[in-house]
Amino acid sequence: MNSEAGPITVYGATGYTGRLVSAELARREIPFIVAGRNREKLEALADSIDPLQTPEVHAVPTSDERGMRELFDRSGAVIACAGPFSLHGEPVLAAAVEAGTPYLDTTGEQDFIRRAFDYYGPKAARAGAPVLPAMGFDYVPGDMLAALTAAALPEGESADRVRIGYHAPFQPSRGTMRSGIEMIKGGDVEWREGALRPASQKVNRPDFDFGGELGVQAMMHYPAAEHITVPGHLSPRTVETSLTVASFAPGAAGKVLPTVSRGLGIAMRTPLRKLMSRAISAMPEGADEESRRSSNFLIGCEVTSARRTVHGTLSGTDVYGLTSALISEGAIRAMRGEVNGTGALAPAAAFDPAGFLSGFGDYQVRWEVSAAR
User: Fold this and answer.
1) HSE (CB half, 13 Å, CA atoms) of 308?
2) Cα separation values, 94 from 78, 112, 225, 289, Å
3) Tell me: the pLDDT tens digits for 52-104?
4) Which residues of 156-180 are buried (b: 16+ CB within 10 A; e: fewer)?
5) FRET partner for 2 with CA separation of 20 to 30 A, picked from 12, 183, 280, 342?
6) Residue 136: which of 34, 224, 263, 210 has the closest Cα?
7) Contact, 107 vs 138, CB < 8 A?
8) How many helices (H) and strands (E) does the chain have?
9) pTM
10) CB 339 within 8 A of CB 350
11) 40-59, pLDDT tens digit by residue?
């Protein structure tokens, strides 16, 4: 790992999330570099930032392995925002690990997260650097909520089953929609009976009780990262993740969603995938701040031991703004050497969950864990 921390490099800085991350680092007066393929777009981004916090600009394509290695070698941490990660992310991850520089990304793609843990994690551990994939809304809150909920089990009892439900109705960015294409095409895994196994592609999943006003919700298949991250710090027998049908299809539209989802999953394994990507390019890049702030999310967690069950919830607003704040905080801590370990780490293993989450009041982040029953 680099002995002296340099600026944080944001790779893929001109995308929707990359610009939010850059604005967050500038707001916090952290030295940073904006990097990516297109110099013109990078310079325009740099010029749009507060003149007192104008970042360096480095146009380095992912094909330039030497250039990326040299850039990351002088970086205090690397934040990767260029997705879909399964298509574009590995050269950035590889270069950061080779440089021995802390790496974080905003991916929600399960196959890329597995690659980070299984292949690059051991390399990063030997280099003395942390690798922290999925350090945004996908999936810091869910992973940390699982740890906070499990901590409420009586002394001597451990988590046997972890269920995590997401309710997150928000306007996705173009990048999220492209990543979604990669996620719904199938091939995901789930933690079942103490091991990663091929996930069922059945769309409908058991109802989830969020409590409060949201109550019991119909759920659908969601190939989340907690199947990969949670077993590393809780060692449960089973992890289940799902998403409310209402997140994507409120009201009556939810009744046809399972059929539509099955068809989309099959279509994304054909040439129609490219046509869908072109169609996404014609859509708005993402929601404005007012729209983002008006969209609230709720994550529920149920942890069961051999004898008891504990429920937890975590709520907040603006998943994209929160993502930029979460990954920026993680990168700043990594740059300062404040990560609990090296190699590939789950958010709850890298940082103390309660201490880390307490810093996001601007996004109304709150959590509550019930007593075991």
Assistant:
1) 17
2) 11, 12, 20, 33
3) 778 999 999 999 999 999 999 999 999 999 988 999 999 999 999 999 999 99
4) ebebbebbbbbbbebebbbbbbbbb
5) 12
6) 224
7) yes
8) 17, 16
9) 0.88
10) yes
11) 999 999 999 977 778 999 99
First to last CA, the chain: 45
Tell me the per-residue pLDDT of 197-248, one tens digit each, with 9 for 90 and over.
999 988 899 999 999 999 999 999 999 999 999 999 999 999 999 999 998 7
How far lies 117's CA from each of 100, 130, 232, 306, in Å? 16, 11, 11, 29
Environment class of 212 (CB within 10 Å of its CB; exposed 0-12, middle 13-18, buried 19+): exposed
Helix (H, G, I), strand (E, B) or coil at 158: coil
Which stretches does DSSP call E strand in 188-251?
Answer: 189-192, 195-198, 204-209, 216-221, 238-244
Handedness of CA 180, 296, 304, 234 (dihedral sign): positive
Residues 6+ apart with CB under 8 A from 66: none
Helix (H), strand (E) at residue 93:
helix 90-99
Radius of gyration from C-alpha coordinates of the chain: 20
The HSE-up count of residue 92 (CA atoms within 13 Å, CB side) is: 34
Residue 112 has pLDDT above 90, yes or no: yes
With beta carbons less than 8 A apart as the criterion, state whether 328 and 79 touch. Answer: yes
Tokens of 45: 């981004």
Q: Is 175 left (phi over 0), alpha (psi -120 to 50) or beta?
A: alpha
Domains annotated on the chain, with CATH: 8-137+322-355 (3.40.50.720), 140-317+361-369 (3.30.360.10)
Return the closest-CA partner of residue 6 out of 35, 44, 46.
Answer: 35
